[in-house]
Specification:
The complex is a heterodimer. Chain A is an alpha/beta fold. Chain A has 14 helices and 15 strands. Chain A starts with a helix and ends with a helix. Chain B has one domain: ABC transporter involved in vitamin B12 uptake, BtuC. In chain B, 71% of the residues lie in helices and 3% in strands. Chain B has eleven helices and two strands, in the order H-H-H-H-E-E-H-H-H-H-H-H-H. In chain B, strand 1 and strand 2 form a beta hairpin. Classes of the chains: A alpha/beta, B mainly alpha. At the A-B interface, helix 2, strand 7, helix 7 and helix 8 of A face helix 1, strand 2, helix 9 and helix 10 of B.
Chain lengths: 409, 296
Amino acid sequence: MKKERFFSVGQLLMWAGCLLAVVMPAAAEARDIKVGIVDTYSGPAAVFGNDALNGFKLAVNEINKQGVLGGKIVFTTRDEQFKVDIGLNVAKELVLKENVDVLVGTINSGASMAISEAVAKKEKIPFIVWTAKSENITGKAGHRYVFSTAENTAMAGKSAAVAFAKKPFKKFWIAGDDYEYGHAIADAIWRNLKKIKPEVEAIGRTWWKPGEPDLIPYLTAIQAAKPDCIIFATGGVSMANVLKAIKTTGMENKIPAWIHTATDHSVLKPLGMNAPEGVMGTIQYHYYYPETPANKKFVADFQAAYGNPPGFPAFNAYTTAQLIAGAYRKAGKIDKEKFIDAMEGLKVDTPVGKVEMRACDHQAVYPMFLGTTKISQEFGGAIAADIITLQGDEVMPTCEEIAEARKQK
Amino acid sequence: MESYVTVSGLISQFLVGLSRAMILFIVSSGLSFILGVLRVPNVAHGSLYMIGAFVAHTLAMAAGGGAAGFWLALVLAPTAVALISLAAERLLFCHLYEREHLMLLLFTFALALILGDLTKITWGADYRSLVAPPFLQGSVMVLGTPFPRYNLFLLAVGPVVALGLWLFSNKTKVGKIARAAAVDREMVGAIGINVGRVFAFAFVLGCFLAGLGGALVSPTVSITLGMDHTIIIEAFLIVTIGGLGNMWGALAGSLIFGVSQSMGILLWPQFAIVFPYLAVVIILTLKPTGLLKSVW
């Protein structure tokens, strides 16, 4: 009797052991996916960093309801302070100390390039750039470990060039931020415009330091040269200052101007009814256009959670989170190389429809919207009007062009 | 590119530079005053300028955002900054005047970081914009070249502030004491003057000017985090080339800085960033103590 019971306990243990042997690896497999975010959370660019973070949080909260591969997406943030060296250091720290599975960020094109080269490529860790727009990130400096969910300068430049080619402008002045993004976007538009309309002429170029607060002296000097149109290669706070200076110097409706993301509400909203009208801008996301159910839901959720409508960084970050979740689900396990394979060609649902991560250059394919600022009583400020949509494949460099650019490097 | 530079363009650009110099003068004269009288290199001066701009925006919006709101903000925002600085002086600075400069530098640097974060906590990271009253918006033709009206206003305000400072430091008793304290504070104390009160007054006046600069600059720029960094570097350079603690040095430095920047933009736009700094290098090479007599 006693002996029999002992035996049955041993049997139980054996079964339990077998069961554990089966369950244990599965339990170890179901861990959380760690995302390291490097972005700017202090200084003037913080408004974009916060917007992106909110978009990412919103998506992650939705995704975590179902979970990914039995775990959750968790994230940790680092402030790069819009500085290349700090961005690089915190990215290294996230990879080497926090052991993140994937890096995302940043708004600074210079920092994104540095992290791509010195961290992503070197440590073989996937890095998804979500706000920085230099086309070099997925263009000539692209590689297996870097992705971009930001619309880039090549796309913006081509969109603007297509629009300009239809206008009678001949004499252009190019002015902008003296750093990676400013030069990249100026080059992109000028290269494309020259190709479509060879008779255009750049009568002058002005470069100011990124974040230069008072742009009035720059604009008065440009105004004196009387160009047909001004191309502003600027972003963030300098763009807000350009828009303000266009109004202050009385250039509004006198000299046409184009600025990529001029129609972004985070720069137009503070200006309210005093925003300049007639400024052309390109962007890949508006919270009020297109008026699809998916976009309306995204905007309503975002508004409810954070108290203001989403900007383009929030949209990019939301898309990024969907891609991360989609790629891990497709890969079936948390593995960096498998993640990259799964990302290539992946299509996810976003507020503006399906977005594809192009396999050949790791660039998200977005349509571009070209609009002109116009005061709307309903919105209490300027919004993009007369919106023209250009499809992603119309404005992106071809895979052949990317291959050529990378070979030259 | 030179072919686009006309005489009227040159004059208009010169005037834009002068108007920019007026803002720089108002801010750097405050910094210079504090440096001269208190011997405090106040790195937090730029933060007070930023706070002045944010407070101006908040006040103008609270008053309905119209022209009246702007004028109200222009008076009250610097006053608010002065009150903040009075609290800072009475609670913190007054215990530190005898410390060495490095300690003071570290202290004010820490204060700048704290004020920067407090600004972020209070107002958030969104851009803000203040609008000038309607009659100061847009531009007028000056010699056939459009010139922003608001910059004309700045050109008028600058000399008024300069005159006010001159009257204060030469015609009022407390101004004279402050000047005397700048030269020899022990002697001023020895003849029975309450130096602590003079110091507090000088500090508050200097900070008032930072707030005034912030409120005045608001209609020409976006009010954002980080506007403290740019201005403090420029203000220190201006004070250095003008002569430490010398009010007229601050004026001379501001004019050189503002005009060299605006002319550089017109004449060589691709390298415009370099010009004001080049001017600083040349002046400091030729005259390392600054243009005018330093009170240190």
